[in-house]
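#lab-general

N.A. 3:47 PM
ok so I finally got the sequence cleaned up, no stray characters, all 57 residues accounted for. can someone with queue access submit it? mine expired

B.Y. 3:52 PM
send it over

N.A. 3:53 PM
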Amino acid sequence: MPGNIAGVARVDHGTLALINDNDLDMTDGAGAFDAQGRLVDSGIETTVTYVRLPRGL
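B.Y. 4:20 PM
back already:
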């Protein structure tokens, strides 16, 4: 399961699609920028996870 779910969509009567939040590739806190002031990539990839439900919606 994604750690930070940003969106949920119904694929069909028995499947949900969950998309994680890559935080716009931003790192939080003091490590957000390098010595030249450039944004440091968080390395988090956006993913979609499909979840089959035991009973349909």
